[in-house]
Amino acid sequence: MMLMLATRAANAAPCGGLHGEAGLVSAVGDLLEQRGVNCADVRGEVRLDGASIVVTREGDTIPVERRVADLATAATVIESWSDRNASDPLLASHPIPAIVVAAAPVAPPPRVVIVERQAPPPPSFHGSQLFAAAETSYANDRTTWAGAQVGGCVVIGPLCAEASVRFANVIDGPAFWTGLDRRSIEVLIGGDVPISVGAGLLLLGFGGGTGQVHTRVDSRDDHRMASETGGLRAEVHAAYAYPLTRSIALDLAFSLDLTQATRSEKTTTMPLPDEPLLLARLGFGLRWGHLQ
pLDDT value at position 3? Predict the structure, then answer.
């Protein structure tokens, strides 16, 4: 009789697809009925396993089993199965429409202007120049000279044609030179070839001309104790012009001078030292003109 009542109660449960222990099925069915759950399509089993309630859903390819602690939780699990038809459309995968976002205009990269610093043009000669230098010389007769040179040059093609005048006098010599006074003057014509070296110009040149040497002995009768010689002159020289401004440069020069005495006038019978044949000169001065 009890078996028939339990079976009837189980069949009367709102979830007719549930089976298992009659008391559990009835109790879970009452909870689902109170919640207004329609679980007619649910197929499953409710059973005790020790202190836990095991709810198994049937009808799927792989049975789903849940182990809960009480009837309310078991009813909640079955309720979730009964709502599957409503939740599946929500859980189903749907294509997400592509959202096209207009790309923001990209500003062109800043324009980088590279300014190349141009090196200053190398110094060069053009037009005309004037120069002046203080000089010191040493001669083959062991005399030391001091003097000055002034001149100018005009650029003609790659050559600077120049003319200069040089003045010098002996300031020291051997012991026998005591009491003697010797001075010279030269006029030279030549040319320089300028070559750019570093910040300045190297000038390689030559010159030739004529000159006179006046020698006298310190005496009360000076006009009778003197001699004068003259002759051709030739020199080679090298100078370095270092620009200070666009029109002024420092000049450092070295030259070798060759002299030749071809004429002599004496007002004394006293023997006097011969004119030196070779002089080495060192000069330092300034140059003015169009240097750049």
Answer: 35
